[in-house]
Design brief:
It comes from Aspergillus glaucus CBS 516.65. The chain is mostly helical. The chain has seven helices and no strands.
Length: 193
């Protein structure tokens, strides 16, 4: 099995953010490469044949929950060179796109349509006695609002995935006693030096 590598961040542009499919694909691929397959990635860090293959090792099924302990230096290398850079790339994308979502969007292709809908809405006469459905009006959401909702949802997903991944790492690797936020922030500080 080959070892996982960190996913690199894409070129960040407003067009990248507004193409929700492309942004979701990047996040999905990054998560599947590292976090969704964390057990396999951690198992790949174990060097099982240091002393040669022992045929008796296959005679009994290994049922211990945690599996074999992983060398702390190898674990630290995995966290520093694979896990944290992938998390940082995803954080960079979400932070950038959150900034795009809160910025004015003069290139919004639906801006004129929404302005027309808003003007029509102000002129609308609602008489629910004559037409109980007349109050129904579903204004089209600005693409910045849609992007803000997507970023908010993806940040929630990211929190859950990182907590689960960190739990697995804490079980298999000795050393990381802090929570994932502290460990990631510590790594970021080391990167700035």
């Amino acid at each position: 099995m080959s070892r996982a590598t960190s996913t690199s961040a894409p070129t960040l542009t407003p067009q990248f953010c507004f193409d929700e499919r492309v942004m979701r694909d990047f996040l999905r691929v990054s998560r599947s490469t590292i976090d969704d397959s964390i057990t396999q990635n951690l198992n790949a860090l174990i060097t099982p044949a240091r002393k040669g293959f022992d045929p008796s090792s296959t005679a009994v099924r290994q049922t211990d929950k945690l599996g074999k302990p992983i060398d702390p230096i190898v674990c630290q290398s995995f966290r520093d060179n694979v896990l944290f850079p992938s998390w940082q790339a995803r954080s960079d994308v979400l932070n950038y796109c959150a900034g795009v979502a809160t910025s004015p969007d003069p290139e919004d292709p639906d801006l004129i349509l929404r302005q027309i809908e808003s003007a029509k809405d102000r002129e609308r006469v609602i008489n629910e006695r004559l037409d109980p459905y007349s109050a129904r009006f579903f204004p089209q959401e600005a693409r910045t609002e849609s992007l803000a909702n997507l970023v908010r949802n993806q940040r929630t997903v990211e929190e859950i995935i990182r907590a689960r991944t960190w739990s697995m790492i804490s079980e298999r690797c000795s050393g990381p006693s802090s929570n994932w936020e502290e460990a990631l922030n510590s790594w970021r500080e080391r990167q700035q030096r």
